[in-house]
């Protein structure tokens, strides 16, 4: 099956810890994205990458970091600097980058809870 | 600034009746418009998109949407609702000429509830 996988499905973090969320795609897509979803706020863009070894900040990048060493993988690290990290995190990919009409395909999400 | 508005937090429809989920947008140029659906604790699924051409776009699961440039709207419609259509629906817009760095701007979502 082609698609996007995210792991883990649920993640619990203690305050002060960094955690890394995994996102893998086998769709051969160039572009990948990370969104944060909070109730009643829709999706907000954290980071995006249009090509391997390159990525840009989205609207709410503070307290997060990413890497794009392989085309298939775009892990997101939630650092201790992120003051309110409890949310549902969604990874997405699309065939080409931001100035195209290609739709994004989404993974199943990771629900992060800070204890 | 680019923006998308979904004016209704929730829409309630009886099964078998037609449904409409509203979306209006604001971009500086011509838009690409998208509808996605999200079931509880799942990712978003693509339903349909408007790029250019025919203002009526047909998508998955019997959904369609009408692009209205003068009203800057892209309402999602279905002639006969099913209980299984109950979900959260998101409208999104991208500026064709790369405004907002070309990123998708999402509305806040509309919860559709279809009762038997």
Could you name the key traits of this structure?
heterodimer; A: 115 residues; mainly beta; seven-stranded mixed β-sheet; four-stranded antiparallel β-sheet; 11 strands; 49% strand; B: 116 residues; six-stranded mixed β-sheet; 12 strands; 0% helix; 52% strand; globular
Describe the structure.
The complex is a heterodimer of chains A (115) and B (116). In chain A, 0% of the residues lie in helices and 49% in strands. Chain A is mainly beta. In chain A, the strands form 2 sheets. In chain A, strands 2, 4, 5, 6, 9, 10 and 11 form a 7-stranded mixed β-sheet that branches. Chain A has a 4-stranded antiparallel β-sheet with strand order 1-3-8-7, with no helix packed on it. In chain A, a hairpin with a 5-residue loop joins strand 4 and strand 5. Chain A is globular, with a radius of gyration of 13 Å. Chain B has 116 residues and is mostly beta strands. Chain B is 0% helix and 52% strand. Chain B has no helices and 12 strands. In chain B, strands 2, 5, 6, 10, 11 and 12 form a 6-stranded mixed β-sheet that branches. In chain B, strand 8 and strand 9 form a beta hairpin. Chain B is globular, with a radius of gyration of 14 Å. The model of chain B has no long low-confidence stretch (mean pLDDT 92).
Identify low-pLDDT runs of chain B. none
Largest interface: A-B, 26 and 25 residues
Overall average pLDDT of chain B: 92
Q: Oligomeric form of this entry?
A: heterodimer
Q: How many strand units of chain A?
A: 11
Q: Over the alpha carbons, how many angstroms does the gyration radius of chain A reach?
A: 13 Å
Helix/strand structural class of chain A: mainly beta
């Amino acid at each position: 099956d082609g698609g996007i996988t995210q792991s883990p499905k649920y993640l619990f973090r203690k305050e002060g810890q960094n955690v890394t969320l995994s996102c893998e795609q086998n769709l051969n897509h160039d572009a990948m994205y990370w969104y944060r979803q909070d109730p009643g706020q829709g999706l907000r863009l954290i980071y995006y990458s249009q090509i391997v070894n390159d990525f840009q900040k989205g609207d709410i990048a503070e307290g997060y970091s990413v890497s794009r060493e392989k085309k298939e993988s775009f892990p997101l690290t939630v650092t201790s600097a992120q003051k309110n990290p409890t949310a549902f995190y969604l990874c997405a990919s699309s065939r080409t980058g931001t100035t195209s009409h290609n739709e994004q395909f989404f993974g199943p999400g990771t629900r992060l809870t800070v204890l | 600034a680019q923006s998308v508005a979904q004016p209704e937090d929730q829409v309630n429809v009886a099964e078998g009746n037609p449904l409409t989920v509203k979306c209006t947008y604001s971009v500086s140029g011509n838009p690409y418009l998208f509808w996605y659906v999200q079931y509880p604790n799942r990712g978003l699924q693509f339903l349909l998109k408007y790029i250019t051409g025919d203002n009526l776009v047909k998508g998955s699961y019997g959904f369609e949407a009408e692009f209205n440039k003068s009203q800057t709207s892209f309402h999602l419609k279905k002639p006969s609702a099913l209980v299984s259509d109950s979900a959260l629906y998101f409208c999104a817009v991208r500026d064709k000429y790369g405004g907002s760095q070309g990123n998708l701007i999402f509305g806040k979502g509309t919860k559709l509830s279809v009762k038997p």
